[in-house]
Amino acid sequence: MKWLLLDRSLSFTLAARIWQGLAGPVTLVFLISSLTLPEQGFYYGILGILGFHAFFELGLAQVLVSQSSHAAAHLDSSEVDDSEIRESQLRMALLIKTSAYWFSFSAILFAVVAIAFGWQTFAMKQSDVQWQSPFLFAVLATAVSLGLTPFSAILEGAGYREMIYRLRFFQVLTGNVVVWLLLLSGGKLWATFAAWAVQAVWTGVIVWQGREFLNRFRGVAGQPTNYSWSNDVLPMQWRMAVLSVVYHLATQLFPVIVIRFHSEEEAAPLGMTGTVIMAIQLLAYAWAQTKYPLIANLHASGNREQAGSLWRHTALVSCLIQLLALVGFFVAVVFINAYFPSIKDRFVTPLQLVAYSAGCVAMHLISLQALYVLSRRTNPLFVPSIIGYVVTTALVWYGGYAYSINGVLTGFAIGTVLILLPLHTWAYLKFRQRTLAHESPHEASE
Fold first, then answer.
1. Residue whose C-alpha is closest to residue 359's, from 384, 395, 332
2. Helical packing angle, 234-251 and 60-72, nearest 10°
């Protein structure tokens, strides 16, 4: 267990992922038994539209984790003087105040855009499926969750990881139960609202639990500081924002693309397969995500060797988990195709899954590289990422327009494996060479 680098916060995250892995098949059974194929298509189409919140989060949540982690490192340290502690307090106050305004505006804008785009996309299908009310309420619940995001991100970076991951575990647990109950009672597409409503409630609980820390900086907000949003946050954030947008366009709208250009029936298997793939990605990413604040803090404290060793170990475990889970899912899809032909149309074909999985492996490697760079409190690998994601977006959207599911997944695999990953890895290795060259011989041994 020591080799897995488990601590209490990671244990809660893994418990949530394990629960998702166990609950996932149950949810799929309920969806298959409760929804028709067109309803399944709309179900995942709505979830895809709700994913627009990433456009309006603009990568700021991850930046806030990094920035608050660096600020928190000197808040109560006995190794720094009072002036440094005061400066850290002012930085934290500025992060809380400015991000609160930013996300409040973003939440409202998200609701307007998501409703407009979703209504236009779904209404053109002229379907008998009753999607209107569930869709509207789901958008509003997502907007509330988005508005609370900066506070939970700042708390995570400031060291409240165990509390946050514990409550996130209860969120996942209760979210699944509520969705199951709705599906069993005939709630159908209202399950999309339930999932996001539960997330909004638990995010509110996290903010309430951390209110003492957040309120601690009210008295220092607005006082002079060398730290500024425009100089210290915005240069990193705008790059993350652009990356967030092109990433979402390239990877997160597969069912929406197929619904828009073809039909909800064709989108259904892509959506259900994507749900399993996403659970696998989240499980693998858990190791990196929960260790990220620690690694950022180690870099902030100058412990480069320890940070590098922890990151390499974390990345290795994360990749092994992803590969094993993807192989297991492939075997399950082959088994369903061979022995359960009545439900095989709810998932993509095994060959399509190979293309999907190849792209996901590439995306996971890219995510690990990007997180390490961000933990060094520097800009992400911007230019190669933008080039790769833009090309992948073009391949995915044109592929979906011309060839439906086959086109989407082929474009995704080609764009990520042959273009995005090589470009990103080249830039990442160049970054590592530059940073090692500027470190002392002892630090370079990481």
1. 395
2. 140
- What does the block give as tokens for 278? 């996403």
- Cα distance between residue 178 and residue 23, in whole Å: 12
What number of other Cβ atoms are within 10 A of residue 255's Cβ? 33
Distance CA 298, CA 300 (A): 5
> What is the token pair recorded at 211?
């209110």
CA–CA dist 52, 55 (Å, integer): 5
Residue 350: the pLDDT is 96
Identify the helix (H) or strand (E) that includes residue 254: helix 254-261
> Do you know the residue count of the chain?
446
Which residue type is seen at 359? G
pLDDT of residue 379: 61
227 by DSSP, 3-state: which? coil
Question: CA 119 to CA 131: how far, in whole Å?
Answer: 10
CB 168, CB 153: distance < 8 Å: no
pLDDT at 324: 95
Q: What was the pLDDT predicted at 374?
A: 75
- Are the C-beta atoms of 99 and 64 separated by less than 8 Å? yes
Distance (Å, whole) CA 384 – CA 369: 12
Compute mean pLDDT per 10 residues along the chain, 446 residues long, and list them: 55 80 86 92 93 84 83 66 73 86 94 94 85 96 96 90 91 95 94 95 95 81 63 74 87 93 92 90 78 71 74 88 95 94 92 97 92 71 90 97 97 98 92 71 45
Cα separation, 325 vs 281, whole angstroms = 9
In the chain, count H helices and then E strands: 17, 0
Distance (Å, rounded) from C-alpha 398 to C-alpha 348?
19
Cβ-proximal residues to 149 (8 Å cutoff; 6+ apart), any chain = 57, 61, 103, 203
What is the per-residue DSSP string for 328-367? HHHHHHHHHHHH-TTTGGGS--HHHHHHHHHHHHHHHHHH
Buried b / exposed e over 159-179, threshold 16 CB at 10 Å, is bbbebbbbbbbebbbebbebb
Q: Report the half-sphere exposure of 230 (CA within 13 A, side-chain side).
A: 0
Instruction: Work out whether the CA dihedral 166, 69, 151, 322 comes out positive or negative.
Output: negative
Pairwise CA distance, residues 252 & 51, whole Å: 7
Q: Buried b vs exposed e over 28-65: b needs ≥16 C-beta within 10 Å?
A: bebbbebbebbbbbbbbbbbbbbbbbbbbbbbbbbbbb
H-only helix segments in 376-415: 382-413
**Assigned token pair, 100:** 């609160």
